[in-house]
Amino acid sequence: MWPPPPAPEPGSSPLSTESPENSCCCENSGLPGLMTTPSETRSSRMRVLGLGWRGPTGTEPGPGAQAAYRLRFRTCWLWLVGVPDTCLSMGLELYLDLLSASCRAVYIFARKNNIPFDFQFVDLLKGHHHSKEYIKINPLKKVPSLKDGKFVLSESVAILFYLCRKYSTPSHWYPPDLHTRARVDEFMAWQHTAIQMPMSRILWIKMLIPMITGEEVPDEKVEQMLAEVKNSMQLFEEKFLQDKMFISGDHISLADVVALVEMMQPMGGNYDVFLNSSKIAEWRMRVELAIGPSLFGEAHDRLMRLAEWDSSTLDPMVKERICELLQKFK
Amino acid sequence: MPLELFLDLYSPPCRAIYIFAKKNGIPFEFRPVVLGRGEHLKPEFLKVNPLGKVPALRDGDFLLAESVAILLYLSRKYQTAPYWYPPDLQACARVDEYLAWQHTAIQLPATNVYLCKSLLPHFSGQPVDTVRLDRLLGKLKPALQHLDQEVLAAKPFLATEQVSLADLMAFTELMQPTAVGCDLFRDWPRLAAWRARVEAALGPELVQDAHKLVLQPRDPRDAQQDPRLAQELVHRLQERLS
């Protein structure tokens, strides 16, 4: 749950000394007599629970997150030993990998608005979005996904609207005024193909494809992609931002969060799209400030550390598909 | 000044807006923008929509682009029947989910099929590149499969039990390649049944009226009117479809 509950009394629960690195924590519960579930079901349930979860940044979670993790497992332990699902309230779950811009938008929004949720890490670099367990959540194999009781929702834009409405977040996020709201809708529609796609492609072309295949994408294609991004940034400045503080006017909205996290994507490959426009650079600073620099930094940590990833651990089948992708650019 | 809608009925999102406005009795001035003559790129239109795309809306001083945004604006301003964009939290989320997903999953690949099958041959004078067409149809297949096998297995329309903005957008997009001879419904029975339901819900006459233009074969002489423009379009299309 987020925000995390207070840490439990020491020794009050068999799981209270859990360390997040322990991928089989429930086997060390010290209550062997209660483990009546057949081990196969139990281990598949453990996989669904994302045991071995390393938190949003892919490294050891901070103390707040660790407490949340312990609460989750106290609840989940009951499920492991066969207590029916209906007896447990899992609360809101967000299936995320912060490497993905759309996941960062949802994460930042939920955290900023103190919306309690369970962070379910779906490690894209390990191909977990293709696992049997995740396909049951989202057959389209994409992140982010939201699970609210039995209700499952995909698409970050839809998830953001859902969270706004369900948790009655402050109105500036999705303004009620007809025209102002339309401005947010307009950007949210345009960005799928004009911002998200090209920004993500830059990361692939500049970083992931060379890293994984050992080969560079031909210069001509790179130039073409960069020109497309430059054009989109120009349209963003001239049409969506203009001389306003934020996209919808004087206040930050969902549109700014979505825009900024997507423009950050090429940073994972050391490509800075903010260099060419002081107007956009200033807008970026305003958005980061409004979100909170610490939350913004935390959300982008995994992306900024992408260069450290050991790509030799990549599943060979996935590597083959990426090599095929490279051929398309040649 | 009345509401103005800048449309070319060759474009699926324009048809969606046209059908929605007519169906809901929303009074508007139809401002034609002929894509085939490059009118969407001319300075006059760029003043209305600097993104250089149709559809676009002008309501007094207020300008708006993007079909999804325009549909939501019209549904709110004219307080159309709730089933188009339901008030229920989860039902509304399903419509939002489709409207977000469809940009890259349906609109992009379906448009590419249409461009390969109809527009490129029309402007280049060359026959359809069937190898490329098959490849582009292949890209659309996973989305059609998802709609037919997963989404429509559970309900009669894409988001809820009734027709909504999701069905309207999907219908006009899937009709695009279908209208020029690539029947997207042929291999997908649930999708075909859904199509009939949507047509009945929108009104067959209105659907026919909106699709009249795209259903007509193009006149080859149109392409020769401005050879320079035709050449530029062919070049852009080749790049986009490669």
From TrEMBL, chain A:
Subcellular location: Cytoplasm
GO CC annotation, single: cytoplasm
Biological-process GO terms, alphabetical: glutathione metabolic process
Catalysed reactions listed for this entry: RX + glutathione = an S-substituted glutathione + a halide anion + H(+)
Pfam families xrefs: GST_N
Claim: Manganese is one of the keywords in the record: no
Keywords, ordered alphabetically: Cytoplasm
Record field: compositional bias (Pro residues): 1-11
Location of the GST N-terminal domain: 90-171
GO MF annotation terms: glutathione transferase activity
EC number: 2.5.1.18
Chain spans, region Disordered: 1-24
CDD domains: GST_C_Theta, GST_N_Theta
PANTHER family: GLUTATHIONE S-TRANSFERASE THETA-4-RELATED, PTHR43917
Name of the protein in its database record: glutathione transferase
Naturally occurring in which organism (per UniProt): Acinonyx jubatus (Cheetah)
TrEMBL record, chain B:
Main location: cytoplasm
The GST C-terminal domain, residue ranges: 88-221
The keyword Transferase is annotated on this UniProt entry: yes
Location in the cell: Cytoplasm
Enzyme class: transferase
GO biological process assignments: glutathione metabolic process
GO molecular function, one term: glutathione transferase activity
Catalysis performed (reactions): RX + glutathione = an S-substituted glutathione + a halide anion + H(+)
Residue ranges constituting the GST N-terminal domain according to the UniProt record: 1-82
EC number annotated for this UniProt entry: 2.5.1.18
GO cellular component: cytoplasm
Subunit field text: Homodimer.
PANTHER family the UniProt entry points to: GLUTATHIONE TRANSFERASE, PTHR43917
Protein family (similarity comment): Belongs to the GST superfamily. Theta family.
The protein's name in its UniProt record: glutathione transferase
Species whose genome carries this gene: Acinonyx jubatus (Cheetah)
Gene: LOC106979693
